[in-house]
Design a protein that fits this description.
Elements (H helix, E strand, L loop, with lengths): L1 E7 L7 H13 L2 E7 L4 H4 L10 E3 L2 E6 L2 E6 L2 H4 L4 E5 L5 H8 L6 E6 L10 H12 L3 E4 L2 H9 L7 E3 L6 H10 L2 H10 L6 E5 L8 H14 L4 E5 L5 H8 L5 E5 L3 H9 L3 E3 L7 H8 L3 E4 L17 E4 L3 H13 L1 H13 L6 H17 L3
Parallel strand pairs: 1-2, 1-6, 2-3, 6-7, 7-8, 8-9, 10-11, 10-13, 11-12, 13-14, 14-15
Antiparallel strand pairs: 4-5
Helix pairs in contact: 1-15, 7-11, 7-12, 9-13, 12-14
Length: 374
């Protein structure tokens, strides 16, 4: 039996279904897949999305700061030394990547998976060169999206040694949860939080990348234009206290904290659109599953999954200022016909992005990588 080890800094809740399916595919095809991970750092802990999973092999991990950069040191030898194939994040911060990729590989294959390039920040020329050096030293690349693959190929990586996995979450489970919610439950939830038909929802980590001050200023303007406007915020993170304080001051803002499973589904079902002016990543897949279009901005630092969205069909992309964003939110919430059309477009995109499809594509890439020449 061939062995594959996937290294992770930590395993967030949304990755559990993917790894479970991937491990099952491996077991059915005589490939033993192990996920080895450390513990979340302080900032990651604030998201409250780390969960214990029986299939995770723990590794010792320490993190340091070097100026504005994170440096992660992991003791990976105990879990990778006997592996035929190692898959790790495409990240400059993991020092074990340099040892595994740039030293002699002793017959085993080392693969990377990730964004392909820096989507969410502007790196220096040295940082770009370093990422390219690490990537091009790997034997296979698992790309989040088509644009992720295109980025590494443009930088010199062989296209034949790539797999596009179409990064996703467990949308089927969310859809099932939404179908179980009754109109009475929605009505009760809306009454409890004094919501209206003009309710938007934000879902994500409460951090700088989500541009919460921008969102809340736009919310104030939307409320001034329409007194029925409401905004639900779901999530946790470094800016949690700021959100809680503002929710106690603003009559249109509702902060629910982190919500998962059916609680998250009920909040989504009670809203009409998703308000995400900052970084849009996997929430794009949630919007398809929930049939809730995203209202976002022409901000340059979205995640690779942003490419799943189509402006005017499954999302609205506004100019990058609070007034334009508030206008778009109010106009869409008040336009029942257009909102219905956009919800249907979201539903029609569901089949393209699923956790089963992602796991199948990822495992096919593992099989091809195992069979390839180093």
């Amino acid at each position: 039996m061939q062995t594959v080890v996937i290294l992770q800094e930590y395993v967030p809740q949304y990755r559990i279904p993917f790894f479970e399916r991937l491990i099952a595919l491996g077991a059915a095809n005589s490939v033993q897949i192990t996920v080895a991970a450390g513990q979340p750092n302080n900032k990651q802990k604030e998201r409250q999305d780390s969960v214990a999973a029986s299939f995770v092999s723990p590794i010792c991990q320490r993190e340091y700061r070097l100026g504005k950069h994170r440096i992660v040191i992991r003791k990976t030898r105990p879990v990778v030394d006997s592996a035929d194939l190692i898959i790790m994040e495409q990240a400059r911060r993991n020092l074990d990547a340099y040892r595994l990729l740039l030293a002699p590989k002793r017959g085993r294959k080392i693969c990377l998976w990730g964004h392909g390039k820096d989507f969410v920040l502007s790196p220096s020329r040295f940082e770009r060169a370093l990422l390219t050096r690490l990537t091009n030293a790997s034997d296979w690349f698992f790309a989040y999206t088509e644009s992720s693959r295109d980025a590494v190929v443009r930088a010199g990586f062989p296209a034949a040694q790539t797999t596009v996995v179409r990064n996703s979450t467990d949308t089927r489970k969310l859809q099932e949860q939404l179908l179980r919610i009754s109109e009475e439950e929605i009505a009760e939830f809306r009454t409890e939080y004094n919501l209206t038909n003009s309710t938007a929802v934000f879902i994500g980590g409460l951090d700088e990348s989500k541009r919460l001050p921008f969102l809340f200023e736009a919310g104030r303007r939307a409320y001034a234009k329409d007194a029925n406007f409401r905004l639900i915020v779901i999530g946790s993170g470094p800016q949690k206290d700021y959100v809680e304080r503002l929710a106690n001051e603003e009559p249109w803002l509702r902060y629910l904290g982190p919500r998962f499973g059916e609680e998250k589904a009920l909040a989504i079902a009670s809203s009409a659109v998703m308000a995400m002016p900052g970084r849009v990543g996997l929430v794009a897949v949630d919007s398809f599953a929930a049939a809730r279009p995203i209202v976002t901005t022409a901000w340059p630092w979205h995640g690779p999954e942003f490419e799943y969205l189509v402006d005017g069909s499954t999302c609205l992309i506004t100019a990058d200022n609070e007034e334009a964003y508030a206008d778009a939110l109010v106009a869409l919430l008040q336009d029942a016909r257009r909102l219905t059309e956009m919800k249907e477009a979201c539903r029609n995109s569901r089949l393209e992005y699923s956790i089963d499809g992602m796991a199948t594509r990822f495992f096919e890439g593992i099989q091809r990588a195992l069979a390839s020449q180093p």
